[in-house]
Design goal:
Elements (H helix, E strand, L loop, with lengths): L1 E2 L5 E2 L8 E4 L4 E5 L9 H8 L5 E5 L2 H11 L1
Parallel strand pairs: 4-5
Antiparallel strand pairs: 1-2, 3-4
């Protein structure tokens, strides 16, 4: 991981939010705690190569971490 000019951590997945891919259900759960990043879910799915999957938003970091442990 590399810090960019705004001191935010740049992820290695192309700059999208943290996510968990659940192949069995064809779903991708994104951790979007605040802001309007949810508007880019379609683009995030395309960048991940799973544009036919359903994009879901999780706003709670602890619930997201549970999903990550379960499916990650």
């Amino acid at each position: 991981m590399v810090k960019n000019r705004t001191n935010r951590i740049k992820s290695s997945n192309g700059g999208g939010p943290p996510h968990v891919i659940i192949h069995e259900k064809k779903e991708v759960v994104f951790l979007i705690e605040s802001g309007m990043a949810y508007m880019g879910i379609g683009t995030f799915l395309k960048n991940l190569g799973v544009s036919d999957y359903k994009g879901l938003v999780c706003k709670n970091k602890s619930q997201f971490n549970e999903l990550k442990e379960q499916y990650g």
